[in-house]
From TrEMBL, chain A:
Keywords: Ribonucleoprotein, Ribosomal protein
Organism of origin: Macrostomum lignano
Identification of the protein by name: Large ribosomal subunit protein bL19m
Keyword Acyltransferase tagged: no
InterPro entries linked to this entry: Ribosomal_bL19, Ribosomal_bL19_sf, Translation_prot_SH3-like_sf
MF terms (GO), sorted A to Z: structural constituent of ribosome
GO cellular component, one term: mitochondrial large ribosomal subunit
An individual GO BP term: translation
Top-rank taxon: Eukaryota
The keyword Ribonucleoprotein is annotated on this UniProt entry: yes
UniProt similarity note: Belongs to the bacterial ribosomal protein bL19 family.
Region called Disordered, residue ranges: 342-361
From TrEMBL, chain B:
One GO MF term attached to the UniProt entry: structural constituent of ribosome
Classification via InterPro entries: Ribosomal_uL3, Ribosomal_uL3_bac/org-type, Transl_B-barrel_sf
Family of the protein in this entry: Belongs to the universal ribosomal protein uL3 family.
This protein's GO CC annotations: mitochondrial large ribosomal subunit
Assigned keywords, A-Z: Ribonucleoprotein, Ribosomal protein
One GO BP: translation
Pfam families hit by this protein: Ribosomal_L3 (PF00297)
Sequence segments annotated as region (Disordered): 356-391
Superkingdom of the source species: Eukaryota
UniProt keyword annotation of Ribonucleoprotein present: yes
Keyword Cell membrane: no
Protein name (record): Large ribosomal subunit protein uL3m
């Protein structure tokens, strides 16, 4: 259990009102987060740090609220504090690699394959564990029918869907994945390509049964979560031949990152690309199109103050225990899926052998 | 299944009751679906409102924490035993109890069965066998028992003594269920919980029926031939796959809203010299006349009982006790809803041809071998089957 220590309180020599004011600014925003995450019961503070319930002041006695009395103040050693910040998953020094350390039981390939297994980032009122477990179970059931490869925004995919009006009843489209949205069975991804000098973007539902196959042609990652700015980029960036040969990749290697910076077309643009923090755009070239005021606004946006905005990080991130649980659940079902695939291969081999022996086609 | 009841009790006993939710609204409804009639906020008050359900929590200082926890576990175990002994599985297993009386037959144009209390959990997308997508609302059916039957003859006495505003009953407009006296009221209790959570008055309602106290009491309009006596168990298989149901629930509370959001009024122009008139109502009446009751004005939006009619049940999950109902139902997740046989005429006529279990599902109605974990509608495509479109 984490030993909690309280930081040193201000000296009691200062006036009573000043003391309470000082304690509010000292303790109000620093220690509450640690108290919420503390696993073990809070130990009572030592008498040195304990404030009296009734603080004498000029108009009589002031009743000090518990948070200023030192009653609930936990004591946290620097090591324990470091451990807390590491486990919380938020903070200015936090990175993805550190979050992955604590989920050592689940292999990293699971998190790459099943990115949509994470619960949605919404208010707790709208989340339900039973519904989320149903989503995960149905996802794995669908994966017994079709192979869904690992892909990221920036990868090139070939998707075949059922189309009753097509000559072979199947419609194949090749494109660059520019967007990947939502979670669970609602997951969708958008492919972009040029068809007869016309830009085409198609959004597919990943778990729709009308998808016959999803083939990964090139596994790649980009610097951004979405590539919507390609709508205002030269068409050469998203022109992919339909007869592209799939490139081999290894699951054990990290996903290659394409660090190219795209030069956008001159304005007008569909969106204010300079205000969304895109790293995949050539910023110098972009700023050359903007006025000084817009450039100042864009630079201020990219000052990276958001890494210190803890509430923003907390609200826009899946809670680590929930993510952990989801991936563990998926890992168990993933192993069952592999067994199911092995059984299918064995039975198909058996049927081949039987058909050869009996001489049937 | 009985094994899950205790888990549900503990889970539901610690779950919060329905609470006020403030959610930003989206204008996704059209004017055609709005109800163009005068209705009053107090019409939707939950009943019984003359009995206080909760009171200030007592802290028994004479008990040590360990003894307090032990007593709580003892109380919960008694609740679990009461639930298990009155469950349908216990009724089927016990050889000493008398078999139920002759079950009534489904009478066309007369019978109206009791409904179920459900808890809306969320939404799950599914696909039909023709490739069409359908959104299903996942509703969990908690432990529930029949509490009381009020026959149609006693409805006047039951209603008049209990209305908070009795002058409403002196008006010419009275609800039809009260004047026709065709159907009676069936009170159903759901979600058994620790008696210490409630007042003695609330627990007394359940004592007469010999049931543990429950968090939710609902009432259904039921025909006398389909009435159930206190203590009867209502289960998941009361509804079958393919039955069309009506889901009645309190809509999402959107808070205090203006007329543009609440009543889809036009408001005023954004520019062109408009002085402080962008989102207002404008005139309230005409020619110096009075403002009539029911004039549409700003106020609290949502938090009203509304019904989604004729929604088919597409899938039943026996492991978690879930009904998958096509479409969307009113209310936020984890809110109570009432599910009953649809009142729509085409559904009632189809039920005459294929009558449901009357008055409710009993263990003797189960098919041989029991139910599988998931029962799908024949038109629905399970996720582990590939789609095969006809040429």
């Amino acid at each position: 259990s984490i030993q909690l220590e309280m930081p040193p309180a201000p000296s009691a020599a200062a006036g009573s009102c000043a003391l309470s004011l000082g304690s509010r600014f000292l303790f109000g925003c620093r220690v509450t987060a640690a108290h919420r995450f503390a696993a073990s019961p809070v130990q009572p503070p030592s008498p040195l740090h304990q404030q009296p319930h009734l603080q004498p002041c000029r108009q009589g006695r002031r009743w000090l609220r518990p948070e200023f009395r030192g009653v609930y103040k936990p004591r946290l050693s620097p090591e324990a504090m470091k451990e807390f910040w590491r486990l919380s998953g938020i903070g200015p020094d936090h990175s993805r690699a550190k979050v992955a350390d604590q989920q050592a039981e689940v292999p990293p390939e699971i998190k790459r394959l099943y990115q949509e297994a994470l619960p949605p980032i919404v208010s707790q009122d709208y989340r339900d564990p039973i519904v989320e477990s149903l989503h995960r179970a149905e996802m794995m059931r669908r994966r017994r029918v079709i192979n869904i490869p690992e892909f990221h925004v920036g990868s090139i995919l070939a998707v075949s869907v059922m189309d009753k009006h097509a000559p072979n009843k199947v419609n194949r489209f090749v494109g660059l994945c520019i967007l990947r949205r939502h979670t669970g069975l609602f997951t969708t991804f958008t492919l972009r390509n040029m068809v007869d000098q016309v830009c085409v973007q198609i959004e597919y539902e990943l778990y729709s049964p009308s998808i016959v196959s999803i083939q990964l042609l090139k596994l790649e990652r980009r610097l951004d979560d979405n590539l919507l700015y390609l709508m205002d980029a030269p068409h050469s960036h998203c022109t992919i031949p339909f007869d592209m040969v799939p490139e081999p990749y290894s699951r054990n290697d990290p996903v290659p990152v394409n660090r190219e910076r795209v030069r956008l077309n001159p304005p007008p643009w569909m969106c204010k690309w300079h205000l969304h923090g895109y790293q995949g755009i050539d910023l110098e070239h972009l700023y050359s199109y903007l006025s000084d005021k817009d450039v100042a606004k864009a630079i201020e946006f990219s000052k990276a103050y958001k890494r210190y905005d803890l509430l923003d990080q907390y609200l826009n991130r899946v809670p680590v225990p929930d993510a952990d649980y989801a991936f563990k659940d998926i890992f168990i079902q993933h192993q069952e899926l592999l067994q199911h695939q092995q059984q299918q291969q064995q039975s198909s081999k058996k049927s081949e052998v039987i058909s050869k022996l009996t001489g049937t086609a | 299944a009985p094994a899950l009841s205790s888990q549900l009790i503990v889970a539901m006993a610690t779950a919060p009751h329905t609470w006020l939710r403030l959610v930003p609204s989206c204008r996704s409804y059209s004017k055609a679906t709005r109800l163009h009639k005068i209705d009053y906020p107090w019409k939707d008050e939950p009943k019984p409102h003359w009995v206080r359900q909760f009171e200030a929590r007592r802290v028994d200082a004479d008990l040590t924490p360990e003894n307090r926890d032990w007593l709580r576990q003892w109380r919960l175990q008694r609740v679990r035993d009461a639930v298990a002994s009155s469950s349908e599985a216990a009724a089927a297993a016990s050889p000493l109890k008398e078999p139920p009386a002759a079950r009534p037959l489904w009478t066309p144009r007369v019978s109206q069965r009791c409904g179920l209390v459900g808890i809306k959990l969320g939404i799950l997308p599914m696909w039909y066998r023709n490739g069409q997508k359908v959104h299903t609302t996942v509703v969990q059916i908690p432990d529930q028992r029949v509490l009381r039957w009020v026959p149609p003859e006693d409805l006047g006495n039951y209603a008049s003594l209990r209305e908070m505003r009795p002058y409403r009953l002196n008006q010419s407009f009275l609800p039809r269920w009260l004047t026709q006296q065709r159907w009676g009221l069936q009170l159903v209790g759901a979600v058994p919980a620790d008696p210490a959570n409630f007042t003695a008055q609330w627990c007394g309602i359940f004592k007469a029926a010999g049931l543990p106290p429950m968090r939710k009491i609902s009432r259904f309009l039921v025909s006398p031939d389909a009435s159930l006596q206190p203590g009867a168990c209502l289960g998941l298989h009361h509804f079958r796959v393919g039955d069309c149901v009506d889901v009645v629930a309190r809509t999402v509370n959107r808070g205090f809203q203006g007329v543009m959001e609440r009543h889809l009024m036009e408001g005023g122009p954004a520019a062109h010299g408009s002085t402080k008139f962008h989102r207002k109502m404008g005139s309230a009446a005409g020619g110096g006349g009075p403002i009539y009751r029911g004039k549409r004005m700003p106020g609290v939006m949502g938090n009203r009982f509304r019904a989604a009619r004729s929604l088919p049940v597409l899938r039943v999950n026996t492991k978690h006790r879930l009904l998958f109902i096509k479409g969307f139902t009113p209310g936020p997740p984890h809110s109570y809803c009432q599910i009953m046989d649809s009142w729509m005429l085409d559904v009632r006529r189809s039920l005459d041809a294929n009558p449901p279990p009357m008055p409710t599902y009993f263990a003797e109605d189960a098919p041989e071998g029991g139910y599988p974990e998931d029962v799908y509608h024949p038109d629905l495509l399970p996720y582990d089957q590939p789609l095969e479109l006809p040429d």
